[in-house]
Write a structure and sequence with these properties.
It is a single chain. Helices cover 76% and strands 0% of the residues. It has 586 residues and is mostly helical. The longest helix has 69 residues, at 384-452.
């Protein structure tokens, strides 16, 4: 029985074990809770493993709020949250998101250098190409195109071509903002008066389902198509249709932002088309409605454009008092607008007004201004630099193709030389193979002939009958006859002593005779055994090698293999493979 003291000790130890288990349980629960809390606190966990198109706008809006806060600690915390997410789809999505956010934040808010930003963006492009993330590659190319803008046309065009190659491989379902990327390209071409390419992308955009989160580009594309039809094709009817399609769009998908301004823009552009048709009476009220709304909304750039058109329209109607009023309003709008692209219309209206006032000096002055404004507009929208850059890019691509063709030709020559060398080696190998195979087959035939003879040792032995003494001949014949009749050589325990006893001959005398017949006793016995093995293999080449070894007097396969190779010059396997084959020439 335990003493009271012993019981106390046991109870104390038991309490310690229980406390230890409780402590481990508490620590584990705390760790699980902390991990769960960490997972819950990461708002981006909900997107992991889902197709990018299903959460693009939610992720975009969330990151924009964090980015626009200009809070470095908040941004870095977001970067860490993105990096902690698992790469469920193996496309490096979250690492790229983190790198992209960090690179842009440092550049925009922490005075990062342009070269460092471009270096990071190009590194991310290589990573996208490596892991096959074409959506993120397009996003980065879009960022680079925004970066270069009109400051470096070569880089802008190179980037736009990369975007064009990616866009055709991505559907709106995969990346809803693919329409926005198309719009950026279309605007670039439109601003450089490459109307055909601009029209192609505008048409692609308007053919897509309208996305409410990016409704603006669907409105702008219709507006710009109206401008293309008017300014490039001079098709005012088609231009009207595109402007009116904005009203239709509003009925189907109510415009959420700046609806009044857009309706006023439509009225103004339709009025402008009426003006170009010389239907001034119809154009004037439409233009006035547009101007009043845009001037009230303080959109002075568009108001300046409409006021200039209204002044010109009034001059055409010989209403010079109202023309003067709209010229004054245009002057007011010009103070608050940096728009120089519509100066030509403004100076035309002024020249017409002063022509109506018969002020020749000012007419001449403003006509000169019209020419200057036209040159400024032409310079801004001049396509020549754009075409020159494209030509340079084309020449560069031709040079690259020529260099690639040259490299491919050199590679072809190298492969051809290696192939010729390899072919020569193969031919040499085949010749050696045939020679070796013929040698094997000849050796098989020679051994088969040897095995078929009754006196097998005579082929190998260097002794000749005429050099042997008659006594030795008789002894040799006696030994051969004994071995042939009794086949005692098939006994694995056969020795020189047992053979001498069987023949009734002195061991020493027998040994001397055998040494003259062959090298030694075992060499002679091996030849008899291998001769039998050759015969047996010739009769049945599928016979098991191990069974064959035991049948002719060997205890193991290795001894048989070595003896067979020594006597015949071939291994048992090589011999069996070449049985029955004819000797051929290569």
């Amino acid at each position: 029985m335990y003493s009271y003291k012993t019981i106390l000790i046991l109870e104390t130890e038991s309490d310690k074990v229980i406390m230890k288990q409780l402590l481990i349980f508490f620590i584990s629960a705390l760790w699980v809770f902390s991990m769960s809390a960490k997972k819950i606190n990461n708002p981006f966990t909900q997107f992991v493993g889902r197709p990018y198109g299903s959460y693009h706008y939610a992720l975009r809006d969330s990151l924009r709020l964090r980015y626009n806060s200009n809070n470095y600690a908040y941004a870095i915390s977001t970067v860490k949250q993105l990096r902690s997410l698992p790469d469920a789809l193996h496309d490096h999505q979250w690492k790229l998101e983190a790198d992209f956010l960090e690179a842009n934040f440092i550049h925009d808010y922490r005075h990062g250098s342009d070269s460092l930003l471009l270096k990071k963006l190009n590194k991310m492009i290589r990573e996208c190409q490596k892991c096959g993330n074409k959506i993120f590659e397009l996003r980065i190319q879009r960022r680079i195109l925004d970066f270069w803008g009109r400051t470096n046309m070569v880089q802008s065009i190179a980037c736009s071509r990369q975007m064009e190659q990616l866009i055709v491989r991505i559907t709106p379902q995969e990346y809803p903002d693919v329409a926005d990327c198309m719009f950026v390209l279309a605007e670039m071409y439109f601003n450089n008066r490459d109307y055909l390419r601009a029209e192609k992308y505008f048409n692609k955009i308007v053919s897509m389902p309208v996305v409410d989160e990016n409704q603006r580009i669907f409105i702008l594309s219709r507006n710009d198509l109206g401008l293309v039809m008017r300014d490039y094709y001079n098709r005012l009817d088609l231009s009207d249709q595109w402007f009116k399609s904005i009203i239709t769009l509003d009925r189907q998908h109510p415009i959420k932002e700046l609806r009044n301004q857009w309706m006023a823009i439509v009225q103004g552009e339709l009025g402008r088309n009426m003006f170009l048709r010389h239907q001034f009476a119809k154009a004037k009220p439409m233009l006035e409605t547009s101007f009043n709304t845009m001037f009230r909304e303080k959109d002075y750039t568009f108001s300046f454009y409409i006021a200039s058109t209204l002044a010109d329209c009034c001059c055409q109607m010989n209403d010079y008092s109202k023309a003067h009023r709209f010229i004054s309003l245009a002057d007011t709008c010009r103070k608050y607008s940096n728009d120089f692209l519509n100066l030509q219309n403004y100076y035309v209206a002024k020249s017409k007004y002063y022509a109506g006032m018969h002020d020749v000096t000012k007419v001449s002055l403003y006509l000169d201004s019209v020419v200057i404004a036209h040159n400024q507009t032409d310079l801004h929208y001049n396509m020549n630099p754009f075409l020159q850059v494209e030509q340079q890019m084309g020449q560069y691509e031709l040079q690259q193709k020529a260099a690639e063709s040259k490299a491919n030709f050199h590679l072809f020559l190298a492969i051809l030389v290696v192939s010729i060398i390899f072919a020569i080696i193969c031919i040499f190998y085949m010749m050696m193979f045939f020679q070796k195979r013929n040698a094997y087959r000849a050796l098989v035939l020679k051994n088969q002939q040897w095995a078929a003879e009754n006196r097998p040792y005579l082929i190998v032995s260097a002794l000749k009958k005429k050099e042997q003494e008659e006594a030795e001949d008789k002894l040799h014949a006696c030994v051969e006859d004994y071995l042939e009749k009794t086949q005692c050589y098939r006994k694995s325990d056969l020795t020189l002593d047992s053979l001498s006893k069987g023949l009734g001959i002195n061991r020493t005398y027998l040994s001397t005779a055998i040494n003259k017949m062959d090298n030694n006793f075992y060499s002679l016995i091996n030849k008899y055994r291998i001769r039998d093995a050759v015969r047996l293999l010739t009769d049945d080449k599928n016979r098991n090698i191990e069974d064959l070894a035991f049948a002719v007097g060997y205890n193991n396969r290795k001894s048989f293999y070595n003896a067979f190779l020594s006597v015949t010059g071939l291994s048992p396997t090589q011999f069996r493979k070449n049985i029955g084959e004819k000797v051929t020439t290569p």
